[in-house]
Structures are given as structure tokens and as C-alpha cells.
């Protein structure tokens, strides 16, 4: 079976054993009773969540359900959140847009905020990891969309974050570039082992990358599932298709293309 899913008593939320198991160390992320409202509109409702160190978590949900709000709160970019939210170690964020400064060459964008005599070498090493080792001295305007997003990823990883937050980072890319970026992120996260929270609308992307998938709806987690799929994770695999159909149902979509 693809996943271990247990119906929690007295609630519609699904739960599972911790990624790190019992007796695990301090989690990378811990939310307790987290809520967020914008005027009369409540977006997040009394959320509890722990993300273990090294765990790759993907957050799904329909538009307007609070996915990016939760990510921004976890990134420390929203001071209007109620409840308890703690993060162990350093955080880095990759947004949907690369947000590179056009007046700085690529390596200086990657090194933005870094200190020390080895800043350039660290930035170039990070660029080499994402396949841009030869482009450190060029201007951002000369990069393709995929290259710019790789530079943004290098800027995050050069800081060796304990928590990497990805807010729909592949949403503006074409299909082939998106697949390449998914593979790159999977490889780099396996190498650096940060905890990861990725927001996406793409169910296939979620299954391809995640250790664990959450579905957010009306401010609550309605699905929380850990993945145990054979590698490589192919859509033609029966377990992949079964999980995909279940997630689409949780998102209010019937998959007629199976």
C-alpha cells in the first residue's frame, strides 16, 4: 500500500506516525494552535503540525485555502499569526518568482547577505550544484526562466538551511523545465537533508517529491499521509495512481483520465 493513513478519533483529520519515529529529536517545525485571520475571514484554524528534521513535506489545497499563508507564517514573514510556531535552526525561502536583483551578477545574487572572505567561492559552488557553475558572472536578465529559478535555489541552499520553504517554485516554468527542476530539487534535498515544506497545486509533483503530503481545506488539514512508494515513482505504477486518485478526491476533483 502506498501510505499509512489513520482516521483520527473525533475529527476528520488523518494522522500518521512521525517521520522520525518515537523518541525523535526536536522537530524542525512545530505548530500548536496556529490560526490566521484577515479581518472577518479566517484562513488558518487552530492548526497543529510537526515536521521532522530532513522530512520533505508537500502542502496541497485548492486556491485560497491558506497554503501560502501557512508557508509565509512558517518563514517568519507574517506577524499576524496566532498560536505557537517554532522553527529549529535557519530558514531559507524560494518563491514562485526568482526575485533576482537585476543590477547584481548571478553569483552576487546568490551571495546576497553572506559574509566572509570565501563568499564568492561559496556562491560559485552553490551555482555549480544547480548546473550554473559557468554563469556566475552573467546578469540575471540573460538567464532563462529555469536558470533563474535554479539561481534562486542556489541562493537558498548556500545558506545550508535547516528548513527550506518552497512556494510554488516551478509554477511559472514550462512542463519539461518543471520536470528537470523537480529532479534537481529531489537530488539536492537528499544531499543537504533540510526539512522541506513545498506548496504546490500539482498532485503528481507532490507524489514525485514528498515523504509526506498534507491537504489543507477550510483552514484545517484534512489529509496527512506518508509515502512508501517504490523508486522511481512513475505515474503508471498502480500505487502511484491509487494515491493520486485519493488526493484528487480530497481536493474535490474526480480523475477521469486514469
Descriptive account of the structure:
This protein is globular. The strands form three sheets. It has a seven-stranded mixed beta sheet, with helices on both faces. A three-stranded antiparallel beta sheet has the order 5-4-7, covered by helices on one side. The protein folds into two domains: 178 residues, Rossmann fold (3-Layer(aba) Sandwich), CATH 3.40.50; 57 residues, no CATH class. By secondary structure, the chain is an alpha/beta fold. The N terminus is likely disordered. Helix content is 29%, strand content 26%.
- The count of β-strands is 12
Oligomeric state of the chains in view: single chain
CATH third-tier fold name of the largest domain: Rossmann fold
Helicity range of the residues? 25-40%
What structural category arises from helix and sheet content?
A: alpha/beta
Mean pLDDT level:
88
Strand numbers in spatial order across the main sheet: 1-12-11-6-10-9-8
Strand content: 25-35%
Query: What string, H for helix and E for strand, traces the elements in order?
Result: EEEEEEHEEHHHEHEHEEH
CATH homologous superfamily of the largest domain, by name?
Answer: P-loop containing nucleotide triphosphate hydrolases
Amino acid at each position: 500500500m502506498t501510505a499509512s493513513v489513520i482516521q483520527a478519533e473525533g475529527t476528520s483529520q488523518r494522522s500518521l506516525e512521525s517521520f522520525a519515529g518515537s523518541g525523535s529529536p526536536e522537530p524542525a517545525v512545530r505548530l500548536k494552535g496556529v490560526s490566521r485571520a484577515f479581518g472577518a475571514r479566517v484562513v488558518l484554524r487552530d492548526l497543529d503540525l510537526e515536521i521532522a528534521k530532513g522530512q520533505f513535506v508537500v502542502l496541497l489545497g485548492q486556491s485560497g485555502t491558506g497554503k501560502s499563508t501557512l508557508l509565509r507564517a512558517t518563514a517568519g514573514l507574517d506577524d499576524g499569526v496566532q498560536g505557537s510556531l517554532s522553527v529549529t535552526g535557519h530558514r531559507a525561502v524560494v518563491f514562485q518568482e526568482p526575485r533576482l536583483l537585476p543590477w547584481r551578477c548571478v553569483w552576487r545574487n546568490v551571495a546576497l547577505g553572506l559574509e566572509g572572505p570565501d563568499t564568492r567561492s561559496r556562491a560559485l559552488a552553490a551555482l555549480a550544484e544547480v548546473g550554473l557553475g559557468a554563469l556566475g558572472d552573467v546578469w540575471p536578465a540573460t538567464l532563462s526562466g529555469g536558470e533563474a529559478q535554479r539561481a534562486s535555489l542556489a541562493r537558498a541552499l548556500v545558506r545550508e538551511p535547516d528548513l527550506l520553504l518552497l512556494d510554488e517554485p516551478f509554477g511559472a516554468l514550462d512542463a519539461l523545465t518543471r520536470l528537470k527542476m523537480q529532479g534537481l530539487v529531489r537530488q539536492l534535498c537528499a544531499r543537504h537533508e533540510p526539512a522541506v515544506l513545498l506548496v504546490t497545486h500539482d498532485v503528481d509533483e507532490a507524489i514525485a517529491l514528498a515523504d509526506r503530503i498534507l491537504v489543507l481545506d477550510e483552514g484545517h488539514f484534512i489529509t496527512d499521509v506518508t509515502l512508501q512508494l517504490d523508486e522511481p515513482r512513475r505515474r503508471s505504477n498502480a500505487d502511484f495512481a491509487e494515491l493520486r486518485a485519493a488526493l484528487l478526491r480530497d481536493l474535490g476533483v474526480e480523475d477521469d483520465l486514469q
